[in-house]
Specification:
Helix content: 25-40%
Oligomer: single chain
Largest sheet: 6 strands, antiparallel
Strand order of the largest sheet: 2-1-3-4-15-16
Number of domains: 1
Strand content: 15-25%
Order of helices and strands: EEHHHEEEEHEHEHEEHEEEEEEHHHH
Radius of gyration: 18 Å
Shape: globular
Number of strands: 16
């Protein structure tokens, strides 16, 4: 089976014995992504911008800061460009020639508080990330989806690691890193709604979380296609979040051979999980209810 990101040159091959067949929907998946409306409230007049929010949470970190982040996001205080999803498509062809195409509708950047002109990218612990995702009818990506987003990105930013220290989890470090990202974006003169990647590590869904409940899975920060600084890691406890982390949401509705499916349900199909690098099948089989309760049976720091 040959798999590629649509409109990109990178190609790699794997084999699969099962393929999903589906009927063509009324609208192409790419159009469906552009038209998708996540249940995100409209920003209330007078909502604070990113700089003001940074001052508000300046002395907070961990669960205390997460509570403020959750409150702001669920009130709809996030940049307009995050409301409009971008399609990212993986394609495959089996040995018998049967096609497999999976399209994900992804946020164009990482979750942030504020507006298009004044925002702060906000890392958060796994429980908060999953809670926000659920409220917005979304899920976290898998590592292969993170790769695909980077490959498809209109704007690829270079990672900018800061010195490791005890301050990595502080709001001051978040603001410092956000400033570096903004400066890099300004040099590229890219529109706010460009599909952007490379500037943060992602919180991801991975079967490894079932082996290490109470931890967070982190992956990404790409130098180049499939060359991330951060390989898949479950070293940190589920509450851990530092300046290098970002939370990018993926609509829970994906399109398999053009037909709409629930992302978690699709993970139960061997062909889809093989296309995604073999990661996610166990979560798909195990998950019957609340994802937080499945992944956080313990909560080490």
């Amino acid at each position: 089976m040959t798999i590629r990101v649509r409109a990109k040159e990178s190609v790699f091959a794997i084999t699969a014995s099962v393929l999903i067949s589906a009927q063509t929907p009324a609208a192409p998946p790419s159009e469906a992504c552009h038209n998708a409306k996540l249940p995100i409230p409209r920003t209330a007049p007078g909502s604070m911008g990113g700089q003001e929010f940074a001052r508000r949470v300046g002395d907070l970190e961990g669960s205390a800061r997460d509570a403020e982040v959750r409150r702001a996001l669920l009130a709809g205080n996030l940049p307009e460009h995050l409301r409009h999803l971008a399609p990212v498509t993986l394609e495959a062809r089996g040995r018998e020639g049967a096609p497999l195409t999976v399209t994900f509708c992804v946020m164009r950047d990482y979750l942030a508080v504020g507006s298009d002109s004044d925002s702060l990218i906000v890392p958060m612990g796994l429980a908060t990330a999953l809670d926000v995702a659920a409220e917005f009818d979304s899920v976290l990506p898998t590592p292969r989806v993170v790769d695909a987003i980077y490959e498809a990105a209109d704007l690829k930013l270079a990672p900018q690691p800061l010195p490791a220290s005890d301050e990595m989890r502080s709001t001051a470090y978040l603001v410092r890193h956000d400033t570096l990202i903004a400066e890099q974006r300004a040099l590229r003169a890219a529109p706010a709604d460009a599909l952007t990647a490379g500037h943060k590590k992602d919180l991801v869904l991975s079967d490894r979380l079932l082996d290490f409940p109470g931890r967070v899975a982190i992956y990404g920060w790409h130098w180049a296609a499939r060359h991330p600084i951060q390989p898949l890691s479950t070293v940190h406890g589920a509450q851990y979040a530092d300046y290098s982390h970002g939370v990018r949401l993926v609509s829970r509705i994906i399109y398999v051979n053009g037909a709409a499916h629930e992302f978690i349900d699709a993970l139960r199909d061997p062909a889809v999980t093989l296309l995604l690098g073999g990661d996610g099948a166990r979560i798909g089989r195990k998950l019957q209810g609340d994802l937080v309760s499945v992944l956080q049976q313990r909560n080490p720091k």
